[in-house]
Design goal:
By secondary structure, the chain is an alpha/beta fold. About 35% of the residues lie in helices and about 20% in strands. It contains 10 helices and 12 strands. α4 links the parallel β3 and β4. α6 runs parallel beside α10. The longest helix is centred in the C-terminal third of the chain and has 15 residues. The chain is elongated and about 60 Å long.
């Protein structure tokens, strides 16, 4: 049976707002907030368990809701008014549908990198918007996985989900310490290319025709000493203007697609 919610004081509405704002609540309840039809559809395609679905009939048709093809009969559906939806949503009138889902926490043993994987490693990523943009790049290049080392933000922050346009659900994502990541990649025979301003070699001279991981540091501090010493090779993008660096998502895209070019975009 579909619930009908018209009050902003409804406990379910308040809980969505709590989960959107508080990482601690997301952790305690083991729930994340997904906003938008495309993002929810990608989460379903990625095998995420949708526990609750809220939709506003004035903003999205029941046929569109049905087309999400929710697996099983375990999702609690709630019809909400437009006013209630716009209170719950970060973006006004954004698609007319919001979901709660169980997050997925992958470990290294869950990865199956194949014979020549290409990975992206992010160290101490701080801004959810940057994380989302990097995940979009990872999806565009069809990387084998993204490894987030010592994260400074919740990877399921609603801003990260929004800016990734749902790519966080299409990409295997592992969180770990830098030491754990280095040890795992050494065991797997994956060559690590750290991007650093102190590097002598340019990125397009690197040989990516082998199992490889591209390591990106934070925008504020770059790579830590752990990665400067732990990476097999250090590379940089030649900067020809007045500044010495670019946005981390732009830098990652340049290096990732050079690697894919060398691999014949396969």
């Amino acid at each position: 049976m579909v619930k009908v919610i018209s009050s902003l004081q409804n406990p379910l509405v308040k809980n969505v707002l709590l989960l959107s704002d508080k990482p601690r609540a997301r952790k305690e309840q083991n729930r994340i907030v997904i906003e938008g039809y495309r993002e929810i559809r990608l989460a379903i395609m990625g095998g995420f368990n949708i526990t609750n679905l809220f939709y506003a009939p004035e903003l999205i048709s029941t046929a569109e809701v049905a087309s999400l093809d929710l697996p099983g009969n375990h999702t609690e559906l709630a019809e909400v008014t437009t006013d209630v939806f716009n209170r719950m949503a970060y973006r006004k009138d954004a698609g007319g549908v919001i979901a709660l889902a169980e997050p997925r926490r992958l470990r290294f043993e869950d990865l199956h990198p194949g014979s020549q994987p290409l990975l992206l490693v992010l160290e101490t990523v701080e801004k959810p918007g940057n994380l989302g943009a990097l995940l979009r790049t990872a999806d565009a290049a069809n990387l084998d996985a993204v490894i987030i080392c010592d994260p400074q933000t919740d990877i399921y922050n609603p801003n990260a989900i929004r800016s990734s346009i749902g790519c966080i659900f299409t990409m295997p994502v592992v969180t770990a310490s830098s030491d754990e990541a280095i040890a795992w990649m050494r065991r797997e025979g994956i060559k690590t290319f750290g991007t650093a301003l102190s590097a002598k070699d340019h990125y397009h001279h690197a040989d990516f025709n082998q199992p490889a991981a591209i390591i990106m540091g934070s925008e504020a501090n770059g790579l830590s000493q752990t990665w400067l010493e732990g990476a097999v090779a250090l590379i940089k993008i030649p900067m020809m203007g007045k500044i010495d660096s670019m946005n981390v998502s732009a830098s990652a895209a340049i290096v990732i697609f050079e690697a894919r070019r060398q691999q014949g975009f396969r």
